[in-house]
Amino acid sequence: MRKVTVVGSGVMGTGIAYAFSISGYDVCVNDINEQALNKAKENIYALMDGSVKKGYLKEEVYQSAKNNLKFESDLKMAADGAELVIEAVLERMDVKVDVFKQLDEICGPDTVLATNTSTMSPTEIGAQTSRPDKVVAMHFFNPVHKMKLIEVIRGLETSDETMKYVHDTAAKINKTTVEVNEFPGFVTSRMNCLIGNEAMNLLMEGVASAEDIDNAMKLGLNHPMGPLELADLVGLDTRLRNMEYLYETLGEKYRPCPLLVKYVKAGRLGKKSGRGFYEYS
Questions:
Q1: 114 pairs with which residues across the strands?
Q2: What's the pLDDT score for residue 160?
Q3: What residues does the 3-hydroxyacyl-CoA dehydrogenase C-terminal domain cover (predicted)?
């Protein structure tokens, strides 16, 4: 069986693991935090249970997917024998580079190493390994089980063979890909961060309420989710890190809204903390 290892058991890591496990892959989820790993297991199983009850998953697929899933806190054991490793850790370059350096030593020479970053450079990450030709960015979207797109970003040294492998793999888990030549923020994050940041400025300036800003975008521009709702779902701390990176690399128009900075300082991180632009029970 083809093995995929997912490093990081947060919202994106669990979603990616779910997508591969229901598509027939042997999946190992890794996290150094045992508590986070146990929470990921609960969340993935709950999503599977709900999918079966709603008729989205057949019983045999459900049973097979549960059997295919493993959870391991030791990175060496988790990544051993994997044909693809997807990193989904904190959106900080130093953290990602540390993970990739370890994976480069652990994994066989044919293993493809992918980062789920939404803004950062696969070229810079790949340069820290002995296999930059096999390093690529696979940017999944939240919630992974519902969102059809994977943004595939080619680093400077990423080979055609690696790109083909990633496109083919995405098709096997029923995702559609778009190919992007590396530039900070890629396509979707540059657009999304600008829209979300402007929505925050509108709220800060008292132009409209959070609800009305989001409803205007949903009902007037046909967005499936309002930009403030989406920021709460992503996590305001994550959004702030993305904005800071884009501000550093692309300039003034990506300066983070002061309201976003204030909310993060206050611990209002969105849905995961129970309060962001909205309150959650």
A1: 86, 136
A2: 97
A3: 185-280
Is 74 marked within a binding site?
no
Q: Is residue 118 a known part of a binding site?
A: yes
Is 138 labelled a binding residue? no
| 3-class DSSP assignment, residue 227 | helix
Rounded percentage of the chain residues whose pLDDT exceeds 90? 93
pLDDT in tens, 201-236: 999 999 999 999 999 999 999 999 999 999 999 899
Beta bridge partners of 113: 85, 135
Of 66, 72, 61, whose CA–CA distance to 36 is shortest?
72
Rounded Cα–Cα distance for residues 97 and 169 (Å): 24
d(CA 159, CA 88) in angstroms, rounded, equals: 22
Any known ligand binding at 185? no
- The whole-angstrom distance between residue 248's C-alpha and the CA centroid of its chain comes to 21
Q: Where do we find the tokens 């994976």?
A: 103
